[in-house]
Design a protein that fits this description.
The protein is an alpha/beta fold and 312 residues long. The chain has a domain at 4-172 and 199-230 and 282-297: NAD(P)-binding Rossmann-like Domain (Rossmann fold). The protein has eleven helices and ten strands. A seven-stranded parallel sheet has the order 3-2-1-4-5-6-9, sandwiched between helices. Strands 7-8-10 form a three-stranded mixed sheet. Strand 1, helix 1 (15-24) and strand 2 (28-33) form a beta-alpha-beta unit.
């Protein structure tokens, strides 16, 4: 029998890439979804929280890849309890149930936001840095990580935490979707003067690292954290230029001092977007590389695959 893995959020952006990657490598994948799509090995979970019944989903499962999360909310300042219930309490409840049912490896996809949105003036973030989470999403993920570390000390189940930066690919939302739309429309973008360096992650590379963790877990540790990113870490204007090239478009970047751009973002209440586009976010990925994993695609290939699938 092939190893059996439960993937939560299997019909989300990342899940739609992870599940076929695992299946191609011979894993038997059970998809946990909030809405049925009539797919094989699918189990519908009505909601994720501290009281979710995971018994049917976890029956006979060897490993769990937990992707499902509350990421966006229109009124984030009023959603503290929702982020906690789904991302923190919901994650820990699932992990406890998984440990009780005999799951041997639990992979939790967290976020680089547990470090903050920018490392301007500092060394690249590493797994050894103390968490300084930003926003409700980052804070709820950091709290889940802390709970998982405690759980790993009490159980035999191995736990791997992955902290990705912006993940791009076909179906990606958030800032990648906004940039792709702006480039396609030929909108002028005020980032030509930005001199930052940021980590990005092709969804194919995230999927391959998840597979690597499942196939080659650590033998000596029950709890490990990994920062994962593409090999190239580039500036925002270079990312836009290469996105435009992959789109067959001409980038329309113009020069405004970054401080002025920052002020404009602040005026429209999008300070977090400013930090995500103008600030630097460099990651030290040496620990992930030391596992033997290597990014499967480069930045240009990842962008080409994202856009080719988008238009197919």
């Amino acid at each position: 029998m092939p190893d059996r893995v439960l993937v939560t959020g299997a019909n989300g952006f990342i899940g739609r890439h992870v599940t076929p990657t695992l299946e191609r490598e011979g894993w038997s994948v059970r998809r946990a979804v909030l809405r049925s799509e009539g797919l094989d090995n699918e189990v519908v979970i009505e909601s994720i929280g501290p009281n979710t019944d995971w018994s049917a989903a976890l029956e006979g499962i060897d490993c769990v890849v937990h992707l499902a999360a509350r990421v966006h909310h229109k009124h984030e300042e009023h959603a503290v309890q929702l982020y906690h219930d789904v991302n923190t309490a919901g994650t820990l409840h699932l992990a406890r149930r998984a440990a009780i049912t005999g799951v041997r490896h639990f992979i939790f996809v967290s976020t680089v936001l547990v470090h903050g949105r920018s490392n301007d003036g500092r060394a690249p973030f590493s797994e050894n840095d103390l968490p300084t989470p930003q926003g409700l999403y980052g804070t709820s993920k950091a709290a889940a990580e802390a709970g998982l570390k405690v759980l790993a000390g009490d159980r035999t189940m191995k736990i791997s935490v992955i902290r990705p930066p912006l993940v791009y690919g076909a179906g990606a939302k958030g800032n990648f979707a906004l940039l792709r739309r702006a480039v396609n429309l030929g909108l002028p973008l005020p980032f030509a003067a930005v001199r930052n360096r940021r980590a990005f992650l092709a969804v194919q590379n995230l999927s391959s690292f998840i597979l690597c963790r499942l196939v080659h877990p650590d033998q000596d540790s029950n709890f490990e954290i990994f920062l994962v990113a593409d090999q190239e870490q580039v500036s925002t204007p270079e990312f836009i230029e290469r996105l435009a090239k992959a789109s067959g478009k001409k980038p329309r970047l113009f020069n405004i001092r970054p401080k002025v751009v920052s002020a404009l973002f602040g005026l429209v209440g999008r300070q977090s977007m400013h930090e995500s586009l103008i600030g630097s976010l460099e990651l030290d990925t040496s620990k992930a590389i030391a596992t033997g994993w290597r990014p499967q695609v480069g930045l240009d290939e990842g962008l080409r695959l994202a856009l080719a699938a988008q238009h197919s």
